[in-house]
Write a structure and sequence with these properties.
- This protein is α+β, with helices and mostly antiparallel strands and 158 residues long.
- The protein has a single domain, classed as Thrombin, subunit H (Beta Barrel), CATH 2.40.10.
- Helix content is 16%, strand content 34%.
- The chain contains 2 helices and 8 strands; from the N terminus they run H-E-E-E-E-E-H-E-E-E.
- The longest helix has 19 residues.
């Protein structure tokens, strides 16, 4: 493992990673952040009807688990877990930082973030390069599928 890494190295890695994800792989998702000013909470700090800021499109790497179908007394229920891997620098540029409770729209389904992880570092070392660039590389979010009817993101037919 290298002990020293320059800003030029980090810039080269970021350029390669961004080109690979944005131009070659091209997985696009939409991140919806909770609008805390418009969301009403109860005395426990919970909200049954959340309001959302407009969605922000982001390129992402994805690890999908197979979709599961469970048949209960009320009919089939789909579930799926997906891990989304965001470029931290791109999130900062678009002012869209994924957090627990936010919603991601991907492949005609909605997924709620239940955990985030930011420990993927360039060269495996935390901290900054000699010129102050952050070595923290990505934001990894684990999510689970949520029902569209539980969200107030789409207009519903009346």
């Amino acid at each position: 493992m290298p002990k020293f890494i320059s800003d030029r190295d980090v810039s080269f890695f970021r350029g390669l990673a961004r080109e690979l994800v944005d131009v070659v792989i091209e997985n696009v998702c939409v991140l919806f952040k909770v609008d805390l000013r418009e969301t009403k909470v109860n005395i426990y700090g919970e909200a049954t009807n959340k309001s959302w800021h407009p969605g922000v499109e982001l390129y992402v790497l994805i690890d999908k688990e197979p979709e599961n179908v469970v048949y209960d007394g009320f009919g089939p229920d789909n579930s799926q877990n997906i891990t989304f891997k965001f470029d931290r620098e791109m999130c900062e540029e678009r002012n869209a930082y994924p957090e627990i409770g936010d919603i991601i729209f991907f492949n005609e389904s909605y997924y709620e973030i239940d955990n985030t992880n930011e420990i993927q570092f360039v060269s495996g070392m935390a901290g900054k390069t000699t010129y102050g660039n952050e070595k923290n590389w990505s934001i990894v979010c684990s999510t689970f599928m949520v029902s569209k009817s539980n969200l107030n993101i789409e207009e519903r037919i009346k």
